[in-house]
Amino acid sequence: MAGDNASTSNATTGKGRIRATQGNGSAPKESKELKGLTVERVWTTEGVHPYDEIEWERRDVVMTNWRDGSINFEQRGVEYPTSWSVNAANIVTTKYFRGAVGTPQREWSLKQLIDRVAKTYRAAGEKYGYFATSTDAEIFEHELTWMLLHQVFSFNSPVWFNVGTASPQQVSACFILSVDDSMDSILDWYKEEGLIFKGGSGSGVNLSRIRSSKELLSSGGTASGPVSFMRGADASAGTIKSGGATRRAAKMVILDIDHPDIEEFVETKAREEDKIRALRDAGFDMDLGGADIVSVQYQNANNSVRVSDEFMTAVENGTEFGLRSRLDGSVIETIDAKGLFRKVALAAWECADPGIQYDDIINDWHTNPETGRITASNPCSEYMSLDDSSCNLASLNLMKFLKDDGGFEIEKFVKSVEFIITAMDISICFADFPTERIGATTRAYRQLGIGYANIGALLMASGLPYDSDGGRTVAASITSLMTGTAYRRSAELAGIVGAYDGYARNAKAHQRVMRKHAAANDDIRAFSTVSDAIREAAGEQWTLGNKIGEKNGWRNAQASVLAPTGTIGLMMDCDTTGIEPDLALVKFKKLVGGGSMQIVNQTVPRALRSIGYQEEQIEAIVEHIGEHGHVIDAPGLKTEHYSIFDCAMGARSISPMGHVRMMAAVQPFISGAISKTVNMPEDATVEEVEEVYFQGWKLGLKALAIYRDNCKVGQPLSAMKKEAPAEEPKAEVEKVVEKVIEYRPVRKRLPKKRSSQTVSYSVAGAEGYLTASGYPDGGLGEVFLKMSKQGSTLAGVMDAFSVAISIGLQHGVPLETFVNKFTNMRFEPAGMTDDPDIRMASSVMDYIFRRLALDYLDFETRSELGILTARERAAQVAAEQEAAVDLAGMAASAPVPTKAPEPVVTAAAVTEPAKPADAKVPAQPAPVQARTSTELLELVQGRSADAPLCFTCGTKMRPAGSCYVCEGCGSTSGCS
C-alpha cells in the first residue's frame, strides 16, 4: 500500500478526491481536497478471495475443567482453517465469537469473526476518506483479511470483543487516568476506574498531585495522603473484578519519588505481605484467590515509583534529596537518596512491588510536552502518554517474516505495518470510549500501539542467543523498521486526513523526537548481512518519514509499544509473547478430539538446522530435550551452542541483566515502553535488585519491574516441593499468641516450623493436592486437602474436613483410627489413580487415607490394615509363590515379577505407572500429566513456578510480559 508517489505532498489532484477530515475524523476540516490512499496487493491474489485459497474444516470446541471433568464451554461444528491449531481455535471460539451459545445469532466460523472486523474497518475508512477509490478499499479489506486469516498479526482483544457488534465500539485496551487534589476528582477516579474494569480493561494513574499526610488542609486539619485513598480504589477493584468482567481488574498506581509520602507508599505492599505471612502461619487461606486474601489490602494494583534524574544522580553520588510539598513545591523534608533507593529495592525484593519508572527519560521522548507531561502508564507499563487517554494495540507475528534461508521479509514486513497502522488509525474514527475526557484526548492525539510477538522464537530459529550482541542487534533493527514505517505511514495519512489536532502546538517537539529515533537507528552496531539490511531499510523509513512529516505533520502522537500479547499471542499460535524469550523448550500441543501431547518447540529443530546440524543429530538432540527439558549434555550438541536455547526459566535460564540489555536495545525505537518483568532467582540479593533498577536508568529504559521467585506468600504455587525436600518452610513472622483453655485430652500444637510434603493425586480423573505436616518425631499432625476451584462448595467442604482431621490428630486421635474409618468408603469419583502404590480407590477419601497410612504408619500397622506399597505387595506375592512351589508345586494365585519396581512417590509430581525392572527409564522424563507449559516446566525442574491460577478455568497461567496468560482459555491478568 502506498501514498501518492510515496508522499502525500502532491496529492491535490486527480479522481477520487476526498476532503481532509478533522483529527477526530468526524467532519471536513478544510475545503482543500486531497487524494486518498492507493492500495497495492501484497499478500492476496487478484480475483481470488482469501477464504478461497485455503482449506477449511469443522471442529467441535469443548472446554472442560481439568480438575473435575465438567464442561465449561461447548460449541460444535465451528469452522476454521486446517492450519489453525486446536488451542488457537478454542481460544478464539470461547473468547471472541459473539452471540449467545446455542442461538442462531452465535458466530460459528472464523470467517464471520474476521468479516465483522475487517468490513467495519473498510466501511469506516471509506466514510472518513482514507481511500482513493472503492477498489482501493476492497483491496485493503482483502489484505487485512488475509493477514488475520494467516495469523500475520492480530488486533488487541477489545477489537474482537466489540467491533461490528451492537456493543459500544470499544477498541482500546490501555487507559491512563488523572487525579487532582480534590475530593471530587478522587471520587471521579473511583468511578472512571470502575467503568474501565467493568469492560475488562485496565488503567493506570499517578497520585502525586494529592497532598501528603504531612501537609495541612484548607480547613486546618491534616490531609489523608494518597495511600489512604488507595484503599478505597483497591476495594473497588476487588469488587468489580469478581462482578462478571472478562478478566481481573488490572491497574497501576504511581507515586513520584519526591512525594512526602513516598516511604509509606514504597513499603505499603511489603507490610501487607508480612500480614499475609502471619495469617498464613495462623492457618488462614492466603493463596491468590483464597477465601481469606480479601482481608489484605492493596493487592489489586501494580505499584511503581517515578524517579527523576535528579534523584538517581543523588543515589549515584550518595547525596541528600528533598521531598516536596504538593501545594507550593517547597522542600518539607530531606532524606538520604541511597537510603530511599535501598527501601525501594528491598520492598521489590520482598514482594515484587514497587516497579520503577524513569520520569526524565520518558518525557525526553515525549512528542507532546506542550500539552502536558507524561505522568503515568497503563497497568503493564507499555503505554505511556497524556493523562485521560487511551491506546489501541495490535501485534505482528515475527515468525511469519522469517525466510527458510534465515533472511527477513523486509518488503512484506513494511507493507504489513502500513496496513495495520492505517487500520488502527481508522478505528479511532468510530471508536467509543468509557469517559468523555478519554474520548476527547484520544481523538485529539490518536495514540497507537503497534508491536510484535515471537522475537524470542525468531532469534532462536535464526541460531542467535537471546542474550547476545547478535540477538539484540536483530531485535533493535526489526523494532526500528516497525516504528519507522509506522511513523512514515502516519505522516502520509496526515497529508490525506489531517495531522492530529494537538500537532500544531507540539510540532517542534514531535520533530525532535523523530530525529532522536532516526539517530538511534544509526547507532545500531553492524553484526550480520541480515541485520544490516534491516537496519538500512529502517534508516530509509525514518529519513523518508521525517521528510514527509516536516511538511504534513503526523497523524498519530504515538505509534508503537511492546505489549504482553497474551491472548492474541495464543490466537496467532506464537511460541513466545511480546519481547520475551521462550519460556521453556518443551510445550503442549492440543489434539483434535481432545487430549494433548508434549512436544519440543518446533523452533528448536529449525535452529539446529540453521547452525549446521544434520537430521540424525537433530533427532537425537530433540529426543534428549524431550526427556530432560534442556540441552545440557545433549548428544552431539556443542557447548558453544547451548546459549541459543537459553530460556526464561529452566536449567539454563537467561540472567536478569540479559533481559534488561534486550529491553535497552529496543527501547529507543518504541514510542511507548515495554511490558516485561525481569525474573530473578529466589537467592537474588537486595543489592542485585538495586543494580537492576540502577542499570535500567543508565541504559535508558522507561520502566522496569522485577519478580524474585517465591517472594509472594499469596502466590498460588504448584504442589511441587522444592529441590531440597528436607528444607523446612520459613516462618518469618511470629504467630499471634492465643489463649488456650486446656481440656482433656490436651491439644499438642505443631511447631511454627514443621516439615511437610505435598502429593498431587488423581482419582478417576479428579485431581487434587494433599499436604501433610508432621511433628519433629515424624508423627502426623496436620493435613490440607485441595480439590476444585477456590470458592466452590467442594473446596469449602474439603477445607472444613481438613481442619477437623488436623484438630483430631493434634488432640491425640491415632492416625490408624482415621484410616480404619475412611478407607473403603465408596462414592464417586472412584477408580484408577495415578499412584503406583494405590492403583485403585473406591473414593477420594479411600485414596487419601491409604496414602497417609503409607507415608506415616509403620509396616506392621499397615500390614494389619492391608495397606502395602507396590514393592511390598510384589515381595509378599513372590514369597507366597515361592512357598507354594515348595509345597508340592501348588499353583500361585497370580504371576508376578521376580523383582518389584521401586515405587515412585515424589512430593508433588504426578507419577507414571510403575515400569518393569528391565524397562529403559529416562534420567529425567518430562511428566506427561501436566496440562500447561508452566506446569510442565515445574515438573521438569522439580520445583514450583510463581504463577497465578486462571480465574476463569483454574489452570496455572504462564508469564506474558508483565502479565500472565492462560493457555487453557486465553484469559489474561493484564490489559492487552
Automatic annotation (TrEMBL):
Domain TSCPD: 764-855
Positions of region (Disordered): 1-33
Biased composition (Polar residues): 1-13
Domain Ribonucleotide reductase class II vitamin B12-dependent N-terminal as annotated: residue spans: 61-151
EC number: 1.17.4.1
Keywords, sorted A to Z: Cobalamin, Cobalt, Disulfide bond, DNA synthesis, Nucleotide-binding, Oxidoreductase
Gene Ontology terms for molecular function: cobalamin binding; cobalt ion binding; nucleotide binding; ribonucleoside-diphosphate reductase activity, thioredoxin disulfide as acceptor
Catalytic activity: a 2'-deoxyribonucleoside 5'-diphosphate + [thioredoxin]-disulfide + H2O = a ribonucleoside 5'-diphosphate + [thioredoxin]-dithiol
Family, similarity comment: Belongs to the ribonucleoside diphosphate reductase class-2 family.
Protein name in the entry: Vitamin B12-dependent ribonucleotide reductase
